[in-house]
Protein 1
Amino acid sequence: MGPTVQRTVWQIQRDVIHALLVREMKTRFGKWRLGYAWALLEPAMHIMVLATIFSFRGRELYPGIPTLLFMLGGIAPFLFFSHCFTKSLATVASNRGLFNYRQLRPFDAVFSRVLLEFIIYLLSLVALLIVLAWCGVQAAFGNFLLLVEVNVLFFGFCLGLSLVLCVVGERYPEFSKVLPVLVRPLYFMSGVFFSLDQIPKEYHPYLIWNPLLHVIELTRQGLFASYHGMFANFQHLTFTAIGMLGFGLLVYRVSWRDLVRSQ
Amino acid sequence: MIKLENLTKSYRTPQGRNVLFKAVNATFPEGKNIGILGRNGAGKSTLLRIMGGIDYPDAGRVITNQRISWPMGLAGGFQGSMTGRENVAFVCGLHGIWGSGQRKVMDTVQGFAEIGNYFDAPIKNYSSGMRSRLAFGLSIAIDFDVYLVDEVMSVGDAQFKSKCEAVIAEKRKTSTFIIVAHTMSLLRKNCEVGIYLEEGRVKICDSMDEAIALYLKGTDSRQKSNIAS
């Protein structure tokens, strides 16, 4: 009936993540009529609304790349980031009941959530590219290997950030109100619907610190052959992503018992 | 074997820290059922959860090589918008039970819980009795070396209670139990080792009767001192 063999730690980890992923999908998409299609519809709607607004300007934001595609390359990664950011703050509180199963710890909840968001992001990006290409909106494809590298780093960055935020959200609940406000300005500072050379030069030295900007510029560079991100710096992204992941793991390791423990 | 090493646990209160127990050392051999006794708020459930690896002490640790269950009949891990079947599938997945093993567990749970078609309805539509039937059925459907029981026998109607007791008697042949309860007869019948908690001290007794005697003496003397003052 029950488990008769001892599992290795990796098997336990795999089982827990697998079970959580299934559960997360059921609770998120199960209750709507459109179900899983909703995962694709959200970024699609976002992009359509913005693209409609900007298409009134009547010219391409970046020469040689249709506005819709340009936006898609910025909005899809940004939505992934902002979902990770806002959801991870409440991870511990909203999964408290699950910690009654000893093999399930906050890390698993954070990891499976980020992983699910990541899968949704990649699938919706691919699906929307196909749909747009089918409608005749397309551009020459860039560099697949670069896309893979950028997204691996981006995943690491978001996982590290989410681990930090899940600790912050539980230990300092007041921050949960303040931090989401920070995501708004990032939307405008990360080149989601412009490229950086449209901003006065004197601000550039500050703006290029933003790792999200590099993610978006490099993603576009990977997607479109004719795109060249002026400021995109792969080393900067590598460094911040590994740094953030390391920092997140450290912060989590120091404080995970306090997240679960009764005080 | 379950070994407690230097276990210390305290709670934050407005008047400072309230110590539940301090530097507890104990070894419980395999095959012994443990009963935990004490007044309300003495830390029985906390000790149970620490031994089960769900809660953590301030200092010290619990060493064990056994598979320990979650507190029996606990419904806190259920997700209201998912059906009973989906929730059972989730818990099975956590414990590495997939495929045909999972279907077997489903059958056991369904047979034990007796909630009929509600098994495929969202849990939020359940009555509290149905919820605890499902939770209890799930607890017994997955095999563990040690089961944690936190006053679970008090749920459900008389028929369900006797069914639970029958199942526990059956389970006792292959597994052991750690029980928190206020019912002396239940503890006396099921446990061989007793733990008595009182105001920051832990007394580990080699027989359940000894722990029960301590507990009764404790409540007696308290009553007397209350009358005297």
Protein 2
Amino acid sequence: MSGSDFLALSPLIALALTPLAVMVSIMIRRSHWAAAAAAIAGLVVSLVLLGAAANAAPRQVTPLIVVDAYSLFYTGLIAAATLAVVLLSYGYLELQTINREELYILLTAAAFGSAVLASSSHYASFFLGLEILSVPLYGLIAFLAARKRPVEAGLKYLVLAGASSSFLLFGMALIYFDLGAMSFGEIAARLGGASFALVVPGSVLILAGIGFKLAVVPFHLWTPDVYEGAPAPVTAFVATVSKGGMLALLLRYFYSSESRGLSPVMIVIAIIAIASMVTGNFLALLQDNVKRILAYSSIAHLGYMLVAFLAGGSEGAAAATFYVTAYFVTTLGAFGCVTVLSTRERDADRLEDYRGLFWRRPALAAVFSAMLLSLAGLPLTAGFIGKFYVVAAGAAASIWALIIILVVTSAIGLFYYLRVLFVMYERREPEAPEFAVLPAAGGGALAVLAVLLIWLGINPGPLVEMIRAAVAALI
Amino acid sequence: MPWMFYLAGAVAVAATIMTITRLNAIHALLYFVVSLLAAAVVFYTLGAPFIAALEVIIYAGAIMVLFIFVVMMLNVGERAVAMERSWLPGGIWVGPAVLAAVLFAQVVYLVMRGPGPEYPRTVVGPKQVGLALYGPYLMGVELASMLLLAGLVAAYHLGWRRQPEQESKETHFDERRTAVGRSAVRAGTDRPAGAP
């Protein structure tokens, strides 16, 4: 590997060194503050190095990793989201008495795995990145091991993630058996025109592995339980970084291996998208738990992203990427509000915890309202622009059935977001709410997210330009 | 020689089914060792004797034997002897032994016969494996090291027990926690009855 290879890899190397830096800080002295600071420093360095790497891009570093504008965009998104999760976790963990510092090792290691997924161009790095993302998540979901729910959620995730990985590996093996290639580019070259018996079944099996991580129907069964059981900042991480890396890979794999030409596979994805939009929105109506509502809503949102993916072309990829960015900001904000309201004993996940929130915590209630409205896709928020972009890309590709289902199910989705909103603005006698002050780090992160949300909703132009340039590397 | 492959594959499937259906951890582990040995024979029939040897040395040899030792050594003392006796009653070794004997017969046959007419087609030796790992797949080796680190930290955190002196200091919290834990049955009974 040459000097420019290392330069191109530098954001990834910084991300890989971050968990080690946190470990060294724990080794010197176990201090929550120092561990969080080490994690933040590592993530910031990685974000800064993106600029340097952009000069060396595009570059294929060994057959496994490709560094181009697209992978750098997603790496930046993942690092920034992890930074927000670290800030949110800090105040949340201050209340706990267990060993807290390990959370930052696991968070940054999982973020590295997600970034590897976004940069992979080969089955080997695809699988290893997926596992580097999954294995820390088992520990993160069950992090508060003294509680019962997190351990149960962690176990569920462990068993289902293991099963889905085996599907994925079997799919890769089938395709390798037929084509004799594992890098996406070579697969595209060998697929060219000829038909192979095992490529379609293999692609569907790979799709099962991808679908599990994205939590799309019918691979969504773990989602509500894991969202409910995991500590709130970890839930934010599972909902954003883990899905974002996988979506980046989905786009890259299907665009660069020419698998978009396999029409049976695309039909399967269309069915998955429809099932996710319908199931996610309808089941969210039946929930009383805020974390579960957000879990089902995330299933629906991934369905919308698949619509953008199905639209295809550069506009489809750009719409999906924009939607991911808006979804990151919104979901981090929503789970951030849950996080800062959580107490030592339990997370603030009951609808009851939000009753009359506006009269006790007007600023926080305003931020949460903005996040919910963005999830619902109302104007002036990032969520609206995202949905608009998806519909526009879909209309250009004339996939009308999917567009109509998207619009109808979003209208249904409005109802459960409004339900949470009404509860927040209900006037109620404050029964001695003994609230601690908002944690400074988490509060700051929430404020930044809220500003970003509105800014993206009003002035999406610069981001759209950036995303168009990034996805140009894909096609 | 495809039937050698299918025989070893059948042994692997049978041993794995026995592994996941055993209620006793020791019995399951014994079958799991056989399952890994069968996978090694599968590799051998496919022309990868080096990977087969690694599978035996690392998985069936080191890791699984370590598992069995740890499970057995976690219980020491008088009661443990009785417990181990109950784990390993007379006939339990027969199943894994029969499956292992099938694999042994296969290996003996393959070694006696020498290289066959069509199987193995190409033999992948240690040199090729090393060149692949430290050539194009160098990043893969590095990524695997990150994976092991993450797994180690996660296992360490979940397996960590608080120190006795800390425990006494924070007993009241623990009591409250376990009380909540017991009543919080999965069916959702811990939610307030009047929640909307």
